[in-house]
UniProtKB/TrEMBL annotation:
GO MF annotation list: kinase activity
Carbohydrate kinase FGGY C-terminal domain span: 51-247
Organism field: Pseudomonas amygdali pv. mori
Name of the protein described by the UniProt record: Xylulokinase
A Pfam family the protein falls into: FGGY_C
Alphabetized InterPro entries for the sequence: ATPase_NBD, FGGY_C, FGGY_Carb_Kinase
Keywords per UniProt: Kinase, Transferase
GO biological process: carbohydrate metabolic process
Family, similarity comment: Belongs to the FGGY kinase family.
């Protein structure tokens, strides 16, 4: 069954509750990853980045293959005749949720009775005033192991090079930079997998609402990041596009004209050397600590 197949009409009782005609067609649709991909970009080899609780990079490609070593695969997509190449990481926004719920606002004696503010907006504001590189602090965002490109469920998160001069402001930015370094690490084999190592990356998901995080992604990855309008709604737009194609209102070839960017984030030349060095250190940390994590966390399974 294809994603654009009309499989019937609404059940009468549901149509009545929703206030819709009983003749309203129901389209097969797609899973969230495929819907996000359609909502982001349907051009071949054009990558998108999803920043939610977990994270992935994906792109529509005209072939089906897999990389066991790097845990990357091109699987059936919502677009007929195309596959969706995907590399997934276990935790992205989950790191900021962890910081919010387990460190900054953990319900213990240190937490005041005041209502929590708009935490993510505050995190953005704080991270923006910390210099790139977080004053030498490096965060590894492996709260529940990692999928691509390492496929190592024993890896764990950590703050590296923490010293007395650091504050929680540095820690907040280090969390964001750590996820960005992890994304760059994933992009290396993914770019080889799809045969494209340049071009704009469309950022989607709740994390892509952050201007600060999008700029950090651009600077760390050395790629232009495109932020669509309401990036958190990309999967809903994708589902709507699929339904429109199913009903003959659109063709997939029409979608690029409807996927206009809200903002582009160019990588800064001034931070390139700094982030190249930090990224090399990030990968070295993983290489050196991986044996210790395997000893500390035997027989672990990556959380979906």
């Amino acid at each position: 069954m294809g994603s654009t197949e009309v499989i019937g009409t609404l059940k009468p009782e549901l149509a009545d509750v929703l206030g819709l005609p009983r003749s309203t067609p129901v389209v097969a649709g797609a899973v969230d990853t495929s819907a996000v991909a359609v909502g982001a970009t349907v051009r071949d080899f054009a990558p998108h980045l999803y920043l939610g609780t977990s994270s992935w990079v994906g792109a529509h490609v005209p072939f089906k293959k897999s990389s066991v070593r790097h845990h990357i695969a091109a699987v059936p997509s919502a677009v007929k005749g195309r596959y969706l190449a995907m590399a997934m990481q276990s935790a992205a926004g989950a790191n900021l949720s962890f910081l919010r719920d387990k460190v900054l606002y953990h319900p213990d004696e240190l937490l005041s009775d005041e209502q929590q503010p708009d935490v993510y907006a505050l995190l953005d504001r704080i991270a923006a005033r910390v210099p790139p590189g977080s004053r030498g602090l490096i965060y590894t965002p492996w709260l529940c192991g990692e999928r691509s490109p390492a496929g190592d469920p024993s890896l764990r998160a950590g703050l590296i090079n923490l010293k007395l001069e650091h504050s929680r402001e540095d820690i907040i930015r280090a969390f964001m930079e750590g996820v960005a370094h992890n994304t760059r690490w994933m992009l290396e084999p993914f770019s080889r997998f799809i045969g494209q190592s340049s071009g704009i990356i469309v950022a989607t998901g709740g994390g892509a609402q952050s201007d600060v995080w999008c700029q950090i992604m651009a600077d760390v990855c050395g790629r232009v990041i495109q932020q669509p309008h309401n990036p958190i709604q990309t999967n809903a737009r994708g589902a709507a596009f699929i339904a429109a194609v199913a009903l003959g209102k659109l063709q997939f070839d029409d979608l690029p004209t409807l996927q206009r960017p809200h903002r582009l984030y160019e990588p800064s030349r001034s931070t390139r050397n700094l982030y190249d060095d930090r990224f090399a250190t990030f990968k070295e940390v993983r290489k050196r600590l991986a044996p210790l994590y395997r000893r500390l966390n035997p027989s672990q399974e990556t959380t979906p």
